[in-house]
Amino acid sequence: MGPHPAVAAIRLAVRRVLHDILTEQTSAQHTGRIAQLSGRSAFHERPVEPLVLVACSGGADSMALASALAFEAPKLGFRAGGITIDHGLQAGSDLRADEVVLRLRELGLDPVDSVAVSVGRAGGPEAAARDARYAALDATAERHDACAVLLGHTRDDQAETVLLGLARGSGVRSLSGMAAVSGAGGRYRRPFLHLDRQTARKACMAQALPVWDDPHNTDPAFTRSRLRQEGLPALEKALGKGVVEALARTAQLSRDDADALDAWASQAETAVRDAAGLLECAKLYALPPAVRRRILRRVAIEAGAPAGSLFARHIEEVDRLITGWRGQGAINLPGKVVAQRQGGRLVIRHG
């Protein structure tokens, strides 16, 4: 008799991601060898058994992911490790982190790290915690030379992310939700985006894995928690079952569109700059709005505007310097970045 269907599903999802990583590494090594033989560059191969880490909070999603990684990694020549982040936002969070470390080691993961972070206030509590968490994950992956970090986001998480993006009115990129592959060099992988939250929980039950239910997930003080507990159930009641699947499908379609528009904007940016590298307003005006605004956002971020604080309304104000020019003054953007029109050129700089 094979494993429980839920266990089989999560293992298959992890196996596919590990296969993708293996294929990418093989291709990179082949390219490196060719470059080395031609004398263009030196190439250093990774260890025979590259390391994949799982980010684990102790919840059902990440515990199911950890167990699947521990099972699948050795078969494909990977080492499996883990990391848990102590945000310090709840009493006893350090003890909880120690328990997660113990559970991951019992699964056979090695190395396993617990990292305490300091959560600031920029962008609100949820955004600040996320920024601190990813900074710690990046640092840990680099310290261990890990080739990837697996995250346990599910299809339900994806649906919530799409709705939050819709509420912010931030455009098609926000509606595209979380990418299956993201981060520098494709570091972060999300194997469960096509699986629902209940599948992960059933997998934990079938394997008798202890899980921790974070009280923040049901705390109405947090926007995502309210959406999870009230918003999505209300939508399903009004529209019927299948809302989560439809939102996840919308995320993928939106991501395809956003990727294509980003590529167009990247190519068009060079053409709208003058010999000095300044943006020419007339050439920007001739572009489709979706392409033009992507260029404006990209340039603002390069000038120092924090991406997480740069909203659609900011870009719309800058866009009016091009499409609705009436001699208006400079536009102040997050991160002390200033945008202004000067002599038919758009100047976006740190102010």
CATH superfamily of the largest domain: HUPs
How many separate structural domains?
A: 2
Tally the beta strands.
10
**Secondary-structure element order, N to C:** HEHEHEHEHHEEHHHEHHHEEE
Notes on the structure:
This protein is of the alpha/beta class and 351 residues long. It folds into two domains: 5-246, Rossmann fold; 272-350, Uridine Diphospho-n-acetylenolpyruvylglucosamine Reductase, domain 3 (2-Layer Sandwich), CATH 3.30.465. The chain is built from twelve helices and ten strands. The chain has helices at 5-38, 60-72, 93-106, 125-144, 155-168, 172-175, 197-206, 223-239, 243-271, 281-285, 289-302, 312-323, and strands at 51-55, 79-86, 112-116, 148-150, 181-182, 188-189, 279-280, 331-333, 337-342, 345-350. The strands form two sheets. The protein has a six-stranded mixed β-sheet with strand order 3-2-1-4-6-5, sandwiched between helices. A four-stranded antiparallel β-sheet has the order 7-10-9-8. The radius of gyration is 23 Å and the shape is globular. Its EC number is 6.3.4.19.
